[in-house]
Fold this sequence. Notes:
Blueprint: H1 2-8, H2 23-39, H3 51-63
Helix pairs in contact: 2-3
Amino acid sequence: MDDLVYHWTLLDDEKPLEGNKSGATRLGFVLLLKFFTSYGRFPRGRAELADDVVECEAKQVKNGAV
């Protein structure tokens, strides 16, 4: 879980990149941004995003933490 939080939490200097995105758009943007930050490329499909990663990000977006 700590590894998940470490790699998938939006950093303070990344937060302005969200702009005025909300809901699913915000979640998708954050997932793509963090995946790109970690791997240097965008995911080829949904299968490259683990369910626990998507769930973790969705909770952050829903709670306004992202």
